[in-house]
Amino acid sequence: MVAMTLVFLVTNNVSFAQGPPGYTLCAEEGEMFTLPERSHVAYGGQGKFNYRYNQTGTITFNNATFGDPAPGVHKSGYYQIADATQSIGKLSWAIMSIKDHLTGTSPLSNAQINSVSDTIEAHIFVLGDTLSLVLQAFDLVDYYESNNGPMFLNAASQGGFPNDFKASDGYELVRAVFKIQQGIQDYVYTSVNVAKYLDVLRGRKFLTADFFPGDCPAPVDSSATYTAQINGSMPTEYGKRTAWSSTPARRPTGYYLSPGSTGSVKVPAAMVNKGFKILVGAHTFDHTGHNPVKRFFRVTNTFPITDTITQIINPFGGGIYIITPYEADLGIVEVQLTNVGSCPVFSAKTFSKTTLQEWIDVQRKTQPLGRF
Fold this sequence. Notes:
The chain is 24% helix and 24% strand.
């Protein structure tokens, strides 16, 4: 009789983490990971992931950061180095696909539009890298606004739309164009790219600006120069800090930039490279998390003051402000603004007070933007 030993292998139901194709595992649920360079990140499990693109620094991989893409499933974090060269080609293809859909050259299903929209989201960070991409994006927005109507003013988007960019609910095309238009604002209208593409950007207005921030006519005399006094000081606060006590102060100039106009701001040499900035647009709150989407998420831009003269432009337009850094000590300074419009300002500043009669006779009868 031959004795036989039977060996049974018992395995637990272990789920090995497997991320999206091309992504590298870097963290388990709840862990943090410092990205080696600009990257795309994913969080999820069992084939369901939420993404964040063009990220740097340390990322916490949890539901609070990403939302929960797979309830009841153990999740992991993954990253993929962002390849700008590859992204330029993919973004160009995506913009062309949406344009071809709009023109009827190559119609897409709603599911296909969402897939193209995902490509836009993943690669939009390179939009300002090349002139050809910038022109391609503007061409798409111009065609959409001319033929479909401006975002939030046309029948497809009037009243807003659900803030779910994965949904199949009839708003797929609206969301895809929204991503491109928001990308232009975020990545083309930076201070660096405005200087780089200024000749291309001159006169380019988003027609949706008539909806928000609102219709602002171009100045009657584009060569006229105006002088504004602003407080160039923000003293050190001693003792127990109060709310926003060290937050750079926003100083209104009393003037606005109309959408697409190129304005000029001249400042004293003492303000150059001292942390002062020019802000165009008052609505600095990011509306990314608002639902439904009733306006573009971000509509302002800033220009660090690195020279005595700064050219400013914004396709949405907006009020013009000087950002005074904490602990600046320049006192009252004068800035000069060209190709801008004046807006009503009721001022109670110690060095500039608006009288009731001035408000009744002049200020409130000027332009649609106002500042108190």
